[in-house]
Fold Prenyltransferase, UbiA family.
Amino acid sequence: MNGKLLRLLRPKQWVKNIFVLVPLIFSRTFTEPGRVLRALGAFLCFTAVSSAIYVLNDIIDIEKDRLHETKRFRPLASGEVTKGQAFILMALLLVLGLAVAFAISTNVVLCLTTYIVLNILYSLFFKKIVILDITVIAIGFVLRVITGAAAINVYISSWVLLCSFFIALCLAAGKRKTEKASLQESSTEHRKVLAVYTDEFLKGLIQISITCTTITYSLYTILEYNVQSPMITILFVVFGLFRYMQLVFEDDEGRLPEELILSDRPLLLSIFLFGVSWIIIFLML
C-alpha cells in the first residue's frame, strides 16, 4: 500500500483500538495463546473497519475539508486519491474486517456491524447534533471493549465499560476544544456544532468526565478484587487524567488529543507506571 492510501486510513488513530485488548488484559487470559490470537484478530478487524469509516467520513466531508487549514492536505481533499479509489478501499476494508470477524465469532460480527451502522448514522446525522455527537464517539470506544470481550468470550465488568465511556467522552470533548482552538473564527463553517460548544461548557464537560472516570475506575479496583493492591493504580490514573486536563486547557495550537498524549513525557510516564503496576499486581494475585 502506497503512502497516500495509508494516510487515508489515518494510522495515528489506530491507537484507539487498544481498547479492544482491555478484556484480554483485565481478565488475565493473556497467557492463553488461543485467546491472545482471537483478541489480536479482533483488534485487526476493528482497525480495518474503523479505517473504512474514516475513509467514508473523508468522502462525505471532502468539500469542507478542502476549506480546512490542515485537513485540506488529506489525500481525498488534496486530490491525491480519487473518490473511486476511496470507495474501493473502503469496501475492501469492510469485507476484510467482517470476514475475519466471522472466523472469530458471530458476536464479534454483531459488534462490528453495530459500530458500522452507528458511525454511518454519525457521519450523516449525529455529528450535527450537539452532545449526541460526542456521546456516539464515546459509545464507539465501549463497543471496542465489548468486541474484545466477545472475541475471547470473557466477562467484562460494568465498571470497566462505564470507565471506558467516560474517558472516551473526555477525549471527545477535548477534541472539540482543540478544534475550536485551531479553527477559531472559522470553526462553525467546518463543524456547525462548534457554535454551541463554548470553551466554558467544554471545560466543564471534560472536568465532569474526568471525575466520572476516576469514580468508576476506583470502584472497579475496590469492588472487583478481594485485595487492596489494585487501588494503587488509582494514583497513576488520577495523575494522568489531571495532566491531560491541564494540557487540553492550556493548548492553543489546536493539537488533537492523541498528539497531546503521545508528546507529553509526564503523561506517558504515568501510563507506563500504570501498566507496570498492573503487571506486578497480576503476578501477585
